[in-house]
């Protein structure tokens, strides 16, 4: 499956990867061959899509091309991945495991290649209309991160953005091919994307988010030339795409939000589950585990409700939390300031639970203008430069429906000790191979953030009494509602009601969540798939080590290799448990 922004037909001129002599098949030791394949995987990925290099530390030297998204480029990419997979399959795993760096790279390569190959059944490039992280909004962030400090970089910026019309032509061609083959995006998602584009296509060039390179450059001549690129090429391309969606695509878009409506939809959903969770669970297994976990969480909520409200009735507990005056916001600004006010306290109290803390700061900022009131969720935007902050983008569209307890949970999830802490620490992990910066999976990243919600209660970060109830009402429901929609016939109304019952979502935000699930099948299962695994590993370590259990060292083992598949994480933690037990036995 392609990245969130797809690919482009632009020609890459220089990717800073020097492959080792072991790149030739069969040459060198097994560990060297693994690292050579890792070199080539990074080079291939950046050749086809430079965007990850603006979020993580990756060896990208040129900034003059967009992702490659033509059908021919997609086919060539698949063939080159297959060649790497064939070479990886021939290596002796026992020899690889003797080298820690090669062992990690092998696990990451295997997960990436297996996942990418399995996802081809989805033909995602043929229904790539996405209001959550579609190319049209993702590219505004790329424009904002475009380097323009030197004359050469400014020339590269002009070159890159002059290719946007060709990128749009490829997107339209891919979507037309999808219509013909029976692959289309859900109509409600298309409507949201059109709304986003409506807010962009008629802007004056200098007010467009795509003008960011001209805005931050001190070169007046460049700014004027870039303004021309935006007005004469970028804006017309965006309008052409918007008009295509309105006049041609919207009418052909599928009425159902279920992935099962697409050709090979069941196989695609299984592949997406594997992609997001790194586990080989079936949709039914995920669904059943989610239901059991929800039931366990609700039992705890009832106990808390008895203490706080003298009631074990779930509807009463949810209503009392929702209606509490000290759990509400008077305005979007109050919600923003509340979250900002909690940020430093969250960092300070988190520090007691980690051996090291990243130096990079985090900030809280509203969604970008083009994202507002279009159903885009709050999210975290990393920055590879530790001198610049990671950004928690907070959705302030419904302050009257949002609650303080829920806002606290989201804040710690996105910043300290959640996404920001984990991703900032990962960049400082030894001399890691660049592959580690590409080896993203949601189960590990979102799982850590879900675990962090519970850790924050342990650390005393929450300031309201409602967070401890709210953080248990929603988790694991994603494991139920996501496969429920895509595989088990849940209606839109049934899904919205199930989410609203948690008390975490108003009717408006529940509708937005349904469209998020429609746009990103499988992704909502990742949070608790990963979170439950990290909790299970902690309980296993606590039971095995007793008084010798060190929470800081446990967190170091969980975070110490950066983003890894869950199976590799389990092996890593269990090896640490064995090492600690052996140390005791040796005394």
UniProtKB/TrEMBL annotation:
Residues 1-24 form the signal peptide. Residues 380-389 have a biased composition (Basic and acidic residues). InterPro entries: DUF885. Keywords: Signal. Residues 364-389 are annotated as: Disordered. It comes from the Bacteria. It holds the Pfam family DUF885. This is DUF885 domain-containing protein. It comes from Lysobacter soli.
């Amino acid at each position: 499956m392609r990245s969130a922004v797809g690919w482009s037909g632009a020609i890459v001129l220089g990717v800073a990867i020097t492959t080792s002599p072991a790149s030739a098949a069969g040459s060198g030791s097994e560990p060297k061959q693994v690292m050579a394949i890792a070199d080539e995987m990074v080079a291939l990925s950046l050749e086809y899509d430079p965007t990850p290099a603006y979020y993580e530390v990756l060896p990208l030297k040129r900034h003059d091309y967009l992702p490659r998204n033509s059908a021919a480029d997609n086919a060539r990419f698949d063939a080159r991945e297959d060649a790497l997979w064939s070479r990886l399959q021939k290596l002796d795993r026992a020899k690889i495991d003797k080298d820690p760096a090669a062992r990690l790279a092998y696990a990451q390569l295997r997960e990436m290649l297996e996942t990418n190959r399995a996802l081809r059944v989805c033909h995602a490039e043929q229904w790539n209309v996405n209001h959550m992280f579609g190319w049209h909004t993702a590219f505004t962030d790329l424009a904002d991160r475009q380097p323009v400090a030197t004359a050469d970089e400014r020339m590269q910026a002009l070159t890159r953005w002059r290719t946007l019309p060709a990128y749009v032509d490829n997107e339209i061609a891919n979507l037309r091919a999808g219509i013909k083959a029976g692959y289309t995006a859900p109509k409600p998602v298309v409507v949201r994307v059109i709304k986003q584009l409506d807010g962009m296509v008629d802007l004056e060039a200098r007010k467009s988010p795509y003008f960011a390179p001209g805005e931050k450059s001190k070169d007046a001549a460049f700014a004027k030339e870039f303004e021309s690129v935006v007005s004469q090429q970028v804006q017309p391309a965006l309008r052409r795409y918007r008009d295509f969606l309105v006049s041609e695509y919207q009418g052909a878009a599928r009425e159902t939000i279920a992935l099962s409506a697409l050709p090979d939809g069941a196989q695609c959903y299984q592949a997406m589950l594997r992609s997001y969770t790194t586990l080989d669970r079936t949709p039914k297994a995920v669904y059943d585990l989610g239901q059991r976990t929800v039931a366990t969480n609700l039992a705890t909520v009832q106990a808390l409700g008895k203490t706080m409200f003298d009631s074990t009735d779930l509807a009463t507990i949810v209503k009392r939390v929702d209606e509490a005056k000290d759990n509400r916001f008077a305005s979007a600004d109050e919600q923003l300031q509340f979250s900002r006010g909690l940020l430093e306290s969250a960092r300070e109290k988190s520090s007691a639970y980690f051996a090291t803390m990243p130096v990079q700061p985090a900030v809280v900022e509203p969604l970008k203008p083009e994202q507002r009131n279009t159903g885009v969720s709050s999210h975290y935007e990393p920055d590879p430069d530790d001198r610049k902050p990671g950004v928690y983008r907070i959705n302030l569209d419904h302050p009257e429906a949002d609650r303080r307890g829920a806002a606290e949970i989201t804040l710690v999830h996105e910043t300290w000790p959640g996404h920001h802490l984990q991703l900032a620490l990962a960049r400082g992990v030894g001399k890691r191979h660049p592959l580690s910066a590409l080896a993203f999976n949601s189960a590990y990243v979102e799982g850590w953030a879900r675990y962090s919600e519970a850790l924050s209660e342990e650390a005393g970060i929450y300031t309201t009494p409602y967070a401890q109830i709210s953080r248990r009402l929603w988790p694991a429901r994603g494991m139920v509602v996501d496969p429920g929609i895509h595989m088990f016939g849940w209606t839109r109304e049934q899904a919205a009601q199930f989410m609203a019952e948690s008390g975490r979502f108003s009717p408006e935000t529940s509708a937005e969540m349904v469209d998020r699930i429609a746009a990103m099948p499988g992704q909502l299962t990742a949070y608790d798939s990963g979170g439950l695994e990290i909790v299970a590993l902690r309980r296993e370590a606590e039971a095995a080590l007793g008084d010798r259990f060190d929470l800081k060292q446990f967190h170091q083992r969980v975070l110490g290799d950066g983003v890894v598949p869950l199976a590799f994480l389990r092996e890593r933690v269990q090896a640490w448990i064995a090492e600690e037990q052996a140390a005791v036995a040796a005394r």
